[in-house]
């Protein structure tokens, strides 16, 4: 399977080079996962060339040309989304637009900061995908870390809207993997802790298994999960990890330590819970926590030291709403996103507190996806009228 995906990615990338002006046709011919990865490889190559030329000639116009191309391509994709598409093709386009919008924002950020060097932090801090001809493989780089693409088939799934907070979280998690440590995103509910780990897994072609932790988990069941992760090379994301009883956490700390120590020593086999098992170097362990909830356990210090923490603050809901609306085919996204966010903010402030009221990010994204369905059902109506129907 991995070899097949590797060949598909190579061919998809070559097809993109030949059909750079016919992207609508290219999108129809290839699988969603390969499309996004090939598109990101091409974007990294193009931006790198623009930065090198900009430095040589001391002129920012090459980045501006790159931004114009990106904006033009996004408008073509957005127009295509409004058309009569199959369900699979629409899923592919929406995921591709979500990633390409972030690519446009990165170019914009570099233009504003006056970045004209491939060695500048603004560029190095991005998740960059390269096709390395020397090793005949896709390499993902961020800051001083480098990873091989996992080639795990993940299907035609959606992608997360990437905000500056997501970028910072990616940087922390990739550094944690590079240092053979775990990642620990923590923050209130609805800030995208688990989704960020899952999306990083998609970007790196890794299979992410999410486990919802509870008081009922014992050290034996945890050991079975960790043994499976070590032998398959998959990532494990343990949601609400601090729900587990303190007695179990003490044993779990030793289990995690034995895996991370084996990874640091670059071993291919190691002894885990008295059994000699194989170890695949790509495996990763992530835990998420919501420290504010009552009844949660404080993590022991020996467990905390194995994880690199990242605080997930309240996300930029307006930016997320804007990108979702754009990916759903709306044109005046900035103004519409502001109006939707203002309505939700007022609802939180003005309405009484009820258990069944939810005006968080999950409810907001659900509403916007539903508005996208209405947009396609009523193409003759204006954006304002379409947005008003679901609200």
From TrEMBL:
Spell out the InterPro entries in the cross-references.
AAA_6, DHC, Dynein_AAA1S, P-loop_NTPase
Check the record and name the Pfam families matching this protein: AAA_6
Nucleotide-binding among the record's keywords?
yes
> Looking at the keywords, is Coiled coil present?
yes
Q: Where in the cell is it found?
A: Cytoplasm, Cytoskeleton, Cilium axoneme
Positions of the Dynein heavy chain hydrolytic ATP-binding dynein motor region domain = 149-386
Molecular function GO terms recorded: ATP binding; dynein intermediate chain binding; dynein light intermediate chain binding
Q: Which GO terms describe its cellular component?
A: axoneme; dynein complex; microtubule
Q: Which UniProt keywords apply?
A: ATP-binding, Cell projection, Cilium, Coiled coil, Cytoplasm, Cytoskeleton, Dynein, Microtubule, Motor protein, Nucleotide-binding
Q: Its Gene Ontology biological processes?
A: microtubule-based movement
What family, per the record? Belongs to the dynein heavy chain family.
The name under which this protein is listed is Dynein heavy chain hydrolytic ATP-binding dynein motor region domain-containing protein
Source organism per entry reads Aquarana catesbeiana
């Amino acid at each position: 399977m991995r070899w097949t995906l590797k060949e598909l990615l190579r061919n998809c990338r070559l097809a993109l080079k030949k059909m750079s002006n016919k992207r609508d046709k290219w999108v129809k011919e290839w699988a969603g996962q390969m499309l996004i990865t090939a598109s990101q490889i091409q974007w990294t190559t193009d931006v790198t060339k623009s930065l090198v030329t900009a430095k040589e000639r001391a002129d920012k116009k090459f980045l501006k040309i790159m931004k114009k191309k990106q904006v033009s391509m996004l408008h073509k994709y957005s127009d295509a989304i409004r058309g009569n598409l199959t369900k699979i093709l629409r899923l592919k386009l929406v995921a591709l637009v979500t990633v390409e919008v972030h690519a446009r924002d990165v170019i914009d950020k570099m233009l504003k900061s006056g970045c004209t060097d491939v060695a500048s932090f603004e560029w190095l801090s991005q998740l960059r995908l390269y096709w390395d001809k020397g090793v005949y493989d896709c390499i993902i780089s961020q800051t001083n870390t480098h990873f091989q693409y996992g080639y795990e088939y993940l299907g035609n799934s959606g992608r997360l809207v990437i905000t500056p907070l997501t970028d910072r979280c990616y940087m922390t998690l990739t550094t944690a993997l590079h240092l053979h440590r775990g990642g620990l995103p923590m923050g209130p509910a609805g800030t995208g802790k688990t989704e960020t780990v899952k999306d990083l897994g998609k970007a790196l072609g890794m299979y992410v298994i999410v486990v919802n932790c509870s008081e009922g988990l014992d050290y034996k069941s945890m050991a079975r999960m960790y043994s499976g992760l070590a032998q398959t090379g998959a990532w494990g994301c343990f949601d609400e990890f601090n729900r587990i009883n303190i007695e179990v956490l003490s044993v779990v700390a030793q289990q995690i330590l034995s895996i991370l120590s084996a990874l640091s020593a670059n071993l291919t086999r190691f002894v885990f819970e008295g059994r000699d098992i194989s170890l695949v170097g790509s495996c990763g362990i992530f835990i998420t926590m919501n420290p504010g909830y009552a009844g949660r356990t404080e993590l022991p210090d020996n467990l905390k030291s194995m994880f690199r923490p990242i605080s997930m603050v309240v996300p930029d809901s307006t930016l997320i709403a804007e990108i979702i609306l754009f990916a759903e085919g709306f044109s005046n996204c900035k103004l519409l996103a502001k109006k939707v966010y203002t309505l939700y903010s007022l609802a939180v402030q003005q309405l009484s507190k009820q258990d069944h009221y939810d005006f968080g990010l999950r409810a907001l994204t659900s509403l916007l996806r539903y508005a996208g369905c209405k947009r396609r059902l009523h193409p003759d109506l204006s954006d304002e009228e379409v947005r008003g129907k679901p609200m």
